[in-house]
Design goal:
Helix content is 46%, strand content 5%. The chain is mainly α. The protein starts with 7 loop residues before the first helix and ends with a helix. The structure holds zinc ion (ZN).
Length: 343
Amino acid sequence: MTKTEFKPEQHKKYFRRSLELLPTESAVFDCSRLTILYFVLVGLDILDGLDLLTDEYKKDIIEWVYRLQLVPSETVPIYKCGFMGSTTVIHLQSHSGCEKYCESNVAMTYMALCVLITLGDDLSRVNKSAVLQGVASLQKADGSFKSNYEYGESDLRFVYCSLAVCIILNDLSGINVDKAVQFISNCFNYDGAFGQNPGTESHGGSTYCAIASLSLLNKLNDVLDNSKLKILERWAINRQTNGFQGRPNKEPDTCYSFWIGATLSIMGSLDKINKEENKDFVLNNANLLTGGFSKDMDSIPDPMHTCLSLCGLSLIGMKNLNPINPALNITVRATNHLKEIQN
Ligand SMILES: [Zn+2]
């Protein structure tokens, strides 16, 4: 048995198990359980393993996701609408005592929609107008978006999630696209990549968010001329050691096979990397006993790194994996379903 063996059945079992049982370390994710669900289902879809879940089980998941939707009511103003990350309520200490915290988050809204699409739902129970108004209320004067209305930070991650939600719901009319594009372009650095906010260090994750956002808006070539695209391509290709790192001088991490791989894929430059070395790096971080992928040799597998490892492997054309849509990060199969329900 070679170390770089690929065992899709083990990874399917890992995902299936992760829907029921997670290690103690995962307790911190209780308030964003939707995130785990998203990575498990997209990962299973890439492995062509969604039939591991019975129709009844898929229906239960869809109902759970819809229960996370905040719709306008006496207690929920329109600007708080969207999806929450979990049914777990966060209690915040305030001067008036203990307050229940119940608010949507645009990253969770994006993942909720992706989960519903992946499971074949038609989004008919999504309160589209409330979700879109919720997203619109997150946009700041500089064009960026906050994660949530009250306490949210703002950066390229939430710009990407906000734009993806509008693209999935097929309506950009409530937001200022030009300002969002201007914000993205302000995050471009002299070294050729993007920071989370203007003037911050270039990073693989924020670079993906910028390029995927521009690609969803069909504005990649408007913002980046040929010379900028060339230095970005060089920056991204240079992140490969054997696998990919997120920033110069960092250790490689399996998730960057997706963040950098998808960036290069959107740019049409993926053939310029050493695919074999990347594949070996990712496969070496698979746990052949339990299934799942870890970020590096010193870590245990988790759903995020397992899903993004599979995304990275799919991008470089690994056999028997379903192709992904690099800009939306769902499978091409799920994207086709989305196109059908958009018509
Ligand atoms: Zn990582």
